[in-house]
Amino acid sequence: MYPERFGSLPAYAFPRLRALLDDHPPGGEVVQMAIGEPQHPFPDWLADTIAAEAAGFGRYPPNEGTPALRQAAAGYLERRYGVTLDPDAQIMALNGTREGLYNAAMALLPSEKAGQRAAVLMPNPFYQVYMVAARSIGAEAVFVPATRETGFLPDVAALPEELLARTAAVYVCSPANPQGAVADAVYWDRLLDLAETHDFKILADECYAEIYRETPPTGALEIAAAKQADPERVVVFHSLSKRSNVPGLRSGFVAGGPESLARIKQLRSYSGAPLPLPIQHASARLWDDDDHVEENRRLYRRKFALADEVLGDLPGYTAPEAGFFLWLETGDGERAALRLWREAGVRALPGAYLAQDAAGGNPGAAYLRAALVAPEAEVLRGLEAIRHVLED
Ligand SMILES: Cc1ncc(COP(=O)(O)O)c(C=O)c1O
């Protein structure tokens, strides 16, 4: 006997990609653009910092994060967004944002609202954990188009009142994976008004907040503070995976209103897996340091420039504002992925694998997602192959 709610989950994107490509030999030296795994170096002091604290592996760590880690996260939010949060009441350590995005739904969202099944809104295409989180609490996952027509962000205001009335939360990803779009102050302002009117939460996935071109993306907390919104409206998720190139460290944090955070902490005191103490210590140092983040951004800027240079004049290309993905309109994303692999050894992900079928079709079907994470020379080779395929 198994739960029905997960029975219809499609295979995850990467097994699907393997099934699409792996019967065919690569048409050249392999360029990895499918997985968004950061590959720039992390600070060289990181390993020593962990080793120096190794005795901490002999202790059970605090679930919510050490005071130093929460203070460092608060310091980062203050420097980056000009917001002041109470590190004791408003911040909690996470093992990366993915599990936090999942567990926040468990801790914060009802299964029913206004006497009906609750709805959890998410962009389409989207980062897949949002959907599983909604299903886990028995809510309906509602996929809101995040297409060229909507500026690649979900247009929540366009949804029917009846749906908004039973909406418990909306997941928003900014900078967005896969589209590279950024929610600006006006977007957050309107969404906060809607959340207030219809009494839902905004779960803001801001794990790409530090990868941008020139202007730092606005954060949900920043706008909520500026308009003195109810602090319980917004819960934000930040990660060191992209900021510091340590996806294997499994370290992030969640921040929001004291009531929301108390509920998340309460659930996790039962079921959470706290970060090992040496990792908490190292994480605090990473949040305290901005120099390595600036250097990381410099490397991504060069890749953005390369992408603009190689693909900029093609109609399927939209220059990403932030994040490290290209979201390329190719006509048929699966076909383009297969061609890239067979003709050039370039692995990129069909957009359909990141989206759900909707009334008008699958909004990712025409797209290909290409990550700019590999070394620069490889990225250049990948971009040139993409140009070749897009031009055809
Ligand atoms: C949009 C988005 N959110 C969250 C995550 C999870 O990252 P982590 O758990 O490493 O913080 C990712 C990872 O790729 C992502 O792309």
Describe the protein in words.
With 392 residues, the chain is α/β, with parallel strands linked by helices. It has helices at 13-21, 46-52, 67-81, 97-108, 129-136, 161-165, 185-198, 220-226, 240-243, 258-271, 277-288, 291-311, 333-344, 376-391, and strands at residues 31-32, 91-94, 112-113, 116-117, 119-124, 140-145, 167-173, 201-205, 234-239, 252-256, 325-329, 346-347, 349-350, 367-371. It has a seven-stranded mixed β-sheet. A three-stranded antiparallel β-sheet has the order 11-14-13. Helix 8 (220-226) links the parallel strand 8 and strand 9 (234-239). Helix 4 packs across helix 10, helix 12 (291-311) runs parallel beside helix 14 (376-391) and helix 13 (333-344) crosses helix 14. The protein binds pyridoxal-5'-phosphate (PLP). Pyridoxal-5'-phosphate binds next to helix 4.
Summarize the biggest pleated sheet.
Answer: 7 strands, mixed
Major sheet: order of its strands? Answer: 2-10-9-8-7-5-6
Mean model confidence by pLDDT: 96
What is the rounded distance between the termini? Answer: 50 Å
What compounds are bound to the protein? pyridoxal-5'-phosphate
Question: What integer value in Å does the Rg equal?
Answer: 21 Å
Order of helices and strands: HEHHEHEEEHEHEHEHEHEHHHEHEEEH
Strand content: 15-25%
- Total number of strands: 14
Q: What percent of the residues sit in helical stretches (DSSP H or I)?
A: 25-40%
Runs in which pLDDT lies below 50 for 5 or more consecutive residues are: none
Rough shape?
globular
| Count of runs of 4 or more consecutive helical residues | 14
Structural class from helices and strands? alpha/beta
